[in-house]
Design a protein that fits this description.
Elements lengths: L11 E3 L2 E2 L3 H10 L6 E8 L2 E6 L2 E5 L1 H4 L2 E2 L1
Antiparallel strand pairs: 1-3, 2-6, 3-4, 4-5
Length: 70
């Protein structure tokens, strides 16, 4: 298991766990980051990560990406 921030661009990953405070987890779940779901890193720009999750393109901060384990 590793944080999403370390995933290779273009590689599809399965979300194993979403960490952080209850508010952070709820926020990420609303964006589609749920355990068992798939996420693909599109690119990384100055630590922020752009991903495809649930057929949507989403940008997450470095701090948020470190709470998503794949």
């Amino acid at each position: 298991m590793m944080p999403l921030i370390l995933a290779n661009p273009g590689e599809q990953n399965i979300i194993k766990k979403v960490g952080g405070s209850p508010d952070t987890r709820k926020f990420l779940e609303k964006l589609g980051f749920v355990a068992g779901g798939t996420v693909t890193v599109i690119s990384e720009i100055s630590g922020n990560v752009i991903v495809n999750v649930k057929e949507s393109r989403v940008a997450v901060s470095k701090e948020m990406a470190q709470k998503i384990m794949v």
